ATP-binding protein
Amino acid sequence: MSASVVIGLDSAGASVRVDIEELLATRLLVQGNSGSGKSHLLRRLLEESAGLVQQVVIDPEGDFVTLAEPFGHVVIDGGAYANDEIVRLAARIRTHRASVVLALDGLDLEAQMRCAATFLATLFDAPREEWYPALVVVDEAQMFAPAAAGDVSDEVRRISLAAMTNLMCRGRKRGLAGIIATQRLAKLAKNVAAEASNFLMGRTFLDIDMVRAADLLGMERRQAEQIRDLARGHFLGLGPAISRRPVSVRIGEVRTRARNVVQGLMPLPSASGPDMESLLLAEVAEPVVAPALVLPTRAEPEPVDSAILLDLIETAGPPGEEPPPPTAPSLFQQQDDARAVTETLFELAAEPDCTFQPVAALYQDFTVRCRMKRIGIGGLDMAAFRRRFAMAVAGCDPDDAGWADILQVARDVADDLLAPFLAIARAAQRGQPCPEDEELARIYGTQSAGRIRRLLDHYEKAGLIVVRTDFGGRRSIGVPALGATTAAVD
């Protein structure tokens, strides 16, 4: 069974896939103005992955309750249950891996935020043996993680924002993969949006949102205008679960529809002006005759008793055969392969002009490469990456015993000054000529020869090197701690 699903087609007509295993580890952010097709995109993703992974949908508008009949989702009416009942329902969902839709359309905004926060917090606090993989979809995420205070109390905003932050920042270790959709990035809390590594950006018009979307997609700001021109149902995708380069996606068809959605125009009522006036101004006590053409309506079902709903969740179960309890919170086990990490760093260091890139961009590229290879980064955070990348640029292999003495000498050298020193020390150790100033400048990430001269002066004042120039004008550089000197060159 494939772990990827097709969400649409690119501009060349090729299928665009989302790797569900990778999505569980990297999370997804969907952005687009009202009418851009966000809900359609989420519905397509949910329908295609329904048989692969447990799904939990936080639905503030009640749009996704139609998934229940064809795909077996259990619908929970958030307004029909007390706080303690919501806690029991969420705990039972984690235990039995049931796919559910938490419908909040019957509540006001503050009540929606309280209910969703309680529900998400219970999912997050499940015992370790129940950390099964699950997609947690939050539509209209700016309501639950607002960037600024609004019409709700500070307490409600705080608990809702805390629940969303836990989902996006720490949920991966508990098997919870956040998929959040928002109309405006500017209205969504930055610490929530920043945790997503996959992006699907739809049509938006405000400059601040276009610029943020372009930044997330790695596009230049002058390219942000194309986001305004996207058609409905078209998105720009990027991320380890989608594509390593921005790709245009036209979302495919779906099998279900949101309830009570009017598509297109409808004929107006046939009542004449006077008749309509009499209908509107009639006495309240008099029976009112409805217009000839009205939307079909259906009675809302009575809320299900919580005890019955708990039993329903128990019998729902996950799609397919029940697997054994997981030994790790993710769907696939990562391997902490130190050698593979070193090789990935060398690949990155071999990229042209890599030393001129910001460290944050290099680190993101590194993590994407590791995820594509299914290797763990072994706790290599940004600070540790900076030093390991400097070593890779200088050609330093930690597994090579010849580098041990050099690394011991360089242990106190600052990370941003490390790469040129390692290159000089290696040349001295081998008795080779010192790298040219142009090569040292490339390693250091500068175009200025003056900066390299000042860097060598700094090394010499720190006692790391000794620069000698003979009467013939040839320079050699000695490393006293190694007892070695580079060959003399002009």
In short: The domain at 4-263+302-316 is CATH 3.40.50.300 (Rossmann fold).
